[in-house]
Specification:
By secondary structure, this protein is mainly alpha-helical. The chain is built from ten helices and no strands. The radius of gyration is 18 Å and the shape is globular. The relative contact order is 0.10. Helix content is 75%, strand content 0%. α1 (2-12) runs antiparallel to α4 (31-63) and α7 packs across α8 (137-150).
Length: 204
């Protein structure tokens, strides 16, 4: 996130958060800014994907009553996991950004945002399919889409509930972003494990 803000601020010649807020409306219609933000988002998402996978692993270890620690968040920055995790995340972000940018370009930003959310839901289980089922990036994305199409109501309901609890944690209970993010992925893991029971021997 700091890298993203630094690049955006440099491009727009912004010196403070206050100035960023005042220019936010202009940024929403600045196609060059949107493209730059999309590219930065793809790069960052590729490097963050293994940490997301680490949250899934921690939840799986906890379910098995096995020891786990913060170091497990970084277990997937290695072969053979990093490449498919990065590729699947880059492709999902690329699809989302292309559709979103095209819809913004034809002055349909709200539809673009809705389509980006839909694409994110389609590929929501790509990461657990890669680490638990050892699938390739494209296979995991394809299977994730099929899972969502079969169980849209269950997945959306659980995610909305998790999001509400996470926001309550941040704004009402002040328990911190890290713990609320962890809760959100716990819900994702639970939903995934109910739909596709995970082999107790996984992950490595």
């Amino acid at each position: 996130m700091p890298i993203t803000f630094y690049a955006i601020f440099s491009y727009m010649e912004i010196s403070s958060m206050e100035e960023f807020v005042t220019k936010s409306k202009m940024l929403e219609s600045d196609f060059n800014y949107l493209v730059m933000n999309a590219v930065i988002g793809m790069v960052l998402s590729a490097f963050i994907a293994p940490i997301t996978a680490g949250f899934y692993k921690i939840n799986h270890l906890a379910k098995q009553d096995k020891d786990f620690g913060l170091n497990n968040l970084f277990d997937y920055y290695k072969s053979p996991y990093f490449a498919p995790l990065a590729i699947s995340t880059i492709l999902a972000t690329l699809y989302s950004n292309i559709i979103g940018l095209l819809l913004v370009y034809i002055n349909l930003p709200l539809v673009g945002s809705m389509m980006q959310i839909f694409i994110a839901l389609l590929f929501i289980f790509s990461i657990p399919l890669i680490i638990f089922e050892k699938q390739t990036a494209l296979t995991a994305m394809s299977n994730s889409s099929r899972i969502f199409v079969k169980h849209p109501f269950t997945i959306i309901t659980c995610l909305v509930f998790a999001f509400i609890i996470a926001m309550l944690g941040v704004f009402a209970l002040c328990i911190g972003i890290f713990f609320t993010v962890g809760y959100f992925y716990t819900m994702n893991y639970t939903v995934y494990n109910e739909i596709i029971p995970i082999d107790e021997t996984n992950p490595e």
